[in-house]
Design brief:
Strand content: 5-15%
CATH superfamily of the largest domain: CRAL-TRIO lipid binding domain
Number of domains: 4
Shape: globular
Distance between the termini: 79 Å
Oligomer: single chain
Number of helices: 28
């Protein structure tokens, strides 16, 4: 009886039923287990252990309560699945990808700080809370002019934590370079902090040398600069969701996530200067002596159009149009970042990843160029973590097989698992509705890419709107400050009645008010894909075509 109850109420069994009801589950008899092992896999290989006293006591509870306790306790009993949990408010789950948090199993959707006090619920947010603690622990951060600047205000607020966490939390609490020298920690202290973090990260797992970049960021940038880079990276995202990307990419290791995030902020602000690429825009690149960037846009080497079955925006890449001599490596890298940043703006909650389709039709060795492939892989793995949902390689010729064997060796196993090869439109239909597959690929979407040139004066807001931009930046700084203060209280366990979610939504809306003053207009603005207030209309052209067809039929009737 006890063994049968254990099987029926095991956390793994109950959780699998919640997540995938149709999946085969273990039978109660050992004979059934052995016969169904091929279909159920590891789910049928669990062996019954002696029941502890707590489980025996649960036998006297009603079965519904016992099952509920088992599901809640699963987060603590099975760490491998639990550590994939995320905030409900920021990045909702999709079945089969991540293990859902306790409130999702129960069908609820609440802000992290309102989940209640159970151990399972606290386990859900422990990693993001730790990472936020490292970023906001010591001192409040304030604003100077329209830049997001940082300075100490009042005594430091230090939460109880291991000594290592205290050291890690100091780096964003240092004062700016402009302040008196006696208030800035000595270089030796900064170096020690960086070394403490580096010691916590396994060098063998540092594929892109981000520990070195992390140290360089601490040595060369003030907390104000790092803070400005962070909030510049947030844009219209939920701040919690941004942190969770780095946590998931580093398998919930907070130290590694911290190193990765600071290295990315350093890359965005110093190495690549992402904001310059965005603010310079197509209009400036069209007038530039180096025509490599704009040439790629005009030919439609890659473009963003439509969505897949999961609602993810799709980036189509026509590999046959790439020639190494057509553009410099710098122009190609800027173009790659431009496409990725534009794709980010197309993400709408709950969708948090994009799809990529490499159209390999007409591919030859003249189109092969390993440098941009390596750069794209680095962007996805190091600087845009958890941004790729699926990648389709369509109609790859046989000569690509040897090339793929090389490229696969560069890929992280998680990224490699998202890449699928398709040969026909039927294969693509597993990922993209036929109505959304371009006609040139065999689908029904009667749309073709055509570049619309920049319009004179389309970026006047960036030049003539300085006063409005100043007002909006001050407003955003106030929202940022409020979110940081609420986060500090939330990290220490104080509930705020949904205030953080409210401010996060204000930040999202506020970004779109600022957008015309920070980002140069793109072909997607000129064609109506981006609408007012960040409204996204991927298939707006279908309405016009529908009206044309209706008008033609009406004329025929007349």
């Amino acid at each position: 009886m006890l063994k049968a109850f254990t099987r029926r109420t095991s956390p793994r069994r109950l959780f699998s039923q919640q997540l995938t009801p149709t999946r085969p589950t273990p039978h109660t008899s050992s004979r059934s287990n052995s016969s169904s092992s091929s279909s159920s896999g590891a789910y049928n290989n669990t062996r019954t252990r002696p029941l502890p006293a707590t489980t025996k006591a649960a036998l006297f509870l009603p079965s519904t309560i016992a099952a509920s306790l088992a599901v809640s306790a699963f987060a603590l009993l099975d760490e491998d699945d639990e550590k994939e949990n995320r905030f409900a408010i920021s990045l909702p789950f999709r079945r089969g990808r991540h293990a859902p948090a306790a409130e999702h199993v129960a069908g609820q959707s609440r802000e992290p700080d309102e989940r209640g006090g159970s151990e399972a619920e606290r386990a859900v947010d422990r990693h993001p809370r730790r990472l936020w603690r490292l970023l906001t622990r010591q001192h409040p951060l304030h604003h100077e002019h329209h830049h997001i600047a940082a300075r100490n205000a009042g005594p430091p607020v230090v939460a109880e934590s291991p000594e290592k966490k205290k050291k890690l939390g100091r780096f964003l609490s240092r004062r700016g370079k402009s302040e008196a020298a006696n208030t800035t920690p000595p270089a030796a202290t900064t170096e020690k902090i960086a070394n403490d973090v580096a010691a916590a990260v396994d060098a063998s797992d540092d594929k892109y040398g981000q520990t070195k970049e992390f140290k360089a960021a601490l040595a060369s940038q003030t907390p104000a600069e790092l803070r400005e880079a962070f909030w510049g990276m947030v844009k219209h995202d939920n701040p919690d969701g941004l942190l969770l990307r780095f946590l998931r990419a580093r398998k919930w290791d907070v130290d590694k996530a911290l190193v990765m995030m600071v290295a990315t902020m350093n890359w965005r602000s110093k190495e690549m200067n992402v904001q310059e690429v965005i603010s310079k825009g197509e209009e400036a690149y069209a007038a530039s002596p180096d025509q490599g960037f704009i040439k790629q846009l005009r030919m439609g080497k890659s473009f963003l159009h439509g969505t897949d079955k999961e609602g993810r925006p799709i980036c189509f890449v026509r590999v046959r149009l790439h020639k190494q001599a057509d553009q410099s490596e710098e122009a190609l890298e800027k173009y790659t970042v431009y496409i990725m940043e534009t794709a980010r703006l197309m993400l709408r909650d709950p969708v948090d990843t994009a799809a990529v389709v490499f159209d390999m039709s007409g591919f030859s060795m003249a189109n092969m160029d390993y440098a941009p492939v390596k750069y794209l892989i680095k962007c996805f793995e190091a600087h845009y973590p958890e941004s790729l949902g699926v990648c389709l390689v369509h109609k790859a010729p046989w000569i690509f097989q040897s090339i793929w064997s090389i490229i696969r060796g560069w890929l992280d196993p998680v990224v490699a698992s998202k890449i699928h090869f398709t040969k026909s439109v039927e294969d693509m239909e597993a990922y993209i509705p036929r109505s959304n597959i371009l006609k040139e690929l065999g689908g029904d979407d009667d749309w073709s890419y055509s570049y619309v040139e920049p319009v004179p004066g389309e970026n006047d807001a960036m030049v003539k709107g300085a006063e409005v931009r100043e007002v909006l930046l001050r407003k955003r700084e106030g929202q940022v400050r409020e979110f940081e203060q609420l986060t500090k209280k939330w990290v220490e366990g104080e509930l705020n009645g949904g205030a953080r979610a409210r401010v996060a939504e204000e930040l999202r809306r506020g970004y779109w008010e600022l957008d015309p003053y920070l980002r140069a207009r793109t072909v997607y603005d000129r064609t109506g894909v981006f609408g007012e207030g960040g409204r996204l209309e991927m298939y707006k052209y279908r309405e016009a075509k529908g009206k044309e067809v209706a008008a033609e039929r009406f004329d025929e009737i007349d």
